[in-house]
Amino acid sequence: MQQLSLLETNTSEDSQQVRAIELRHLLSHHNKLYYEQDAPEISDAEYDALFRELQSLESTRPDLLVYDSPTLRVGGTPLERFVQVRHRQPMLSLENALSEEEIRAFEVKIRNMLALPDTLSLTYQCEPKMDGLAIELVYLNGILNQASTRGDGEVGEDVTANVRTIRNIPLQLKGTDLPELLEVRGEVYLPLSAFQKLNARRQEAGESVFANPRNAAAGSIRQLDPRVVARRPLAMVCYGVGTIERGARGDGKGVRTQTDLINQLAEWGLPVSNETRTVNGVEELIYCFNDLQERRDSLQYEIDGMVAKLDDLTLQMELGAKSRSPRWAIACKFPPRQSRTKINDILLSVGRTGVITPVAILEPVELSGVTVSRATLHNWDEMRRKDIRIGDTVIVERAGDVIPAVVKVLEEERSGAETIMQEPEHCPVCGSKALRLEGEAAVRCQGGLSCPPQLAESVIHFASRDAMNIDGLGSKYIEQMINLGLVKDVADLYQLRSDDLMQFERMGDKLAEKLLAAIEASKNQELARLIFALGIRHVGERTSRILADRFGSIENLQKSTFDELTGIRDIGSTVAASIRSFFDTPANQSVLKRLEDAGVSPRSAPKQTGGRLEGKTFVFTGSLTGFTRDEAKQMVETEGGTVTGSVSRKTDYVVTGSDAGGKLEKARSLGVTVITESDFLGMLKKD
Ligand code: IVH
Predict the structure, then answer these.
(1) Considering 461, 489, 524, which residue would you say is the last residue of a domain?
(2) How does pLDDT run across 418-428, given as a tens digit for each residue?
């Protein structure tokens, strides 16, 4: 980790300033390692710790905040809609060349237009054609002022708040010869690994998945809430400029070619492609194109071709542009990575969280050098939309994802013998009921407590700190228990004996005893924790507490009706349906019975009525000094109030600790009452 030695100063105020500068340097250094060199030296958690330290410093000392602080990248408050922006110069598109012949034809055309002698070869600058979305950045005197989408080329949308969260875009340019106005154009994209993670997360959450990284990047940039964008690791690569106004700052004469221009952008600190090549003549250009195509699958991002630009800026000017595209550039497109094959069968795969995904079993086919025999069909909405049937002849595509997808069905190839795969009514693994909750794309197995693919996840959640809080029982042991066949559902935890645990790696008598004691102690956990521990979809800690207060025991909750549940404030029909479906599933009922037999008999916390904070909702933010979050929560709940994690119009009080950040800002903007820790304690004082 890079250490900066900065001058020690006398006052603590100054040392805070020095630390802020140091933190900004460190964050920018680690950002570079992460995004530009793909060689991080610190973990995400360490990065977050530095980030939070700077955030906290800046919130206590607003005078230390500078306009290019990395903390300004976390995203501001959500927008109602995007404002339209007219580009100073239209953002053009490119003409395509789909074969080597078309690339040669492009060269012949421009040679003729420029009336070049045969002996003179043309120099081109070549770059990957990034598969993302075009964005224009406007820098005023080196400071990022605005970012907009291409839109229709003339008018785009102002996405500045979102683009500020992209970590490889400088908020301030480097250097002294900065133009007064600089419009930089480039492509915003989502690296492949981030795309795969995002889709996996969405699939598990029952949300629709993005078809390719381009859709994911475009969908992210068009999010109205910049905080959502801040969590997606988008990146940008700059490939050109629009208007540049220099004022008195140099004449830019050193920049004569596209290659010079890209080097200049890089010198100003803007991200440019490290795959840029300058080539001489069309044959070299074609060689470069083929070489890039061969390496396409080894790149960390999705590209759909190579862009070749005439290198000489004077010649570019001479050729000019047609209405939609410049004459001096061409997009040399790769042939699509698609193949034609047949769906022999559709299987159902059950994921960690019970999501049931239809998977097409294909007649093996080669797709960009890899033999594929399976393709994800995502979910039934997708399958119905594309009308995919068993026996269909289909086009499969690898769109930046490792797992190929079915793009479309060749209906003309149908014989009539094809069969439709209906939504499953039961889990193919454990046989429990399968259900699709309102508003969800995914069908899920409801046997969460004992379905084998969901087992590890359900036991880890059951034992976790906010659930049954079984101290020391982490995923490492849980996986061993499952692998050894000792635990087939959460009730089995209470049957474990010392001998069983002694089979684990690095387990001693003492540790085994401690673990068994922790399991034993969890039998007396509160009812709300047990309800939460069951992992019922849509039933978080807050809902668990409401249910515990209302029903007092698992037996009563199990007997509750849908109408009774929806009659409770804060419980809607989706949550009620999920609760009913959980308790109606025989596999879950038998686990609950075995839990009860094992002595897991939760106490019901008496419902508080007439408490001092009855009906009031609190949010705690910043570092609290007088008590912990858990203690604060308990104090509020004892007095009949509720604690939530985020500020909304329904929040009655926001209690601020010493370094409150975004939640405080949001409270102020919504006009929610903000109080200090001691105000809060004052509210609890007996009179
Ligand atoms: S140059 C005036 N270079 O492709 C020419 N475009 O089909 C401006 N694109 O809208 C484009 N990578 O968003 C250029 N290295 C690259 C590119 C690139 C991707 C996109 C760009 C443009 C589209 C045109």
Answers:
(1) 524
(2) 999 999 999 99
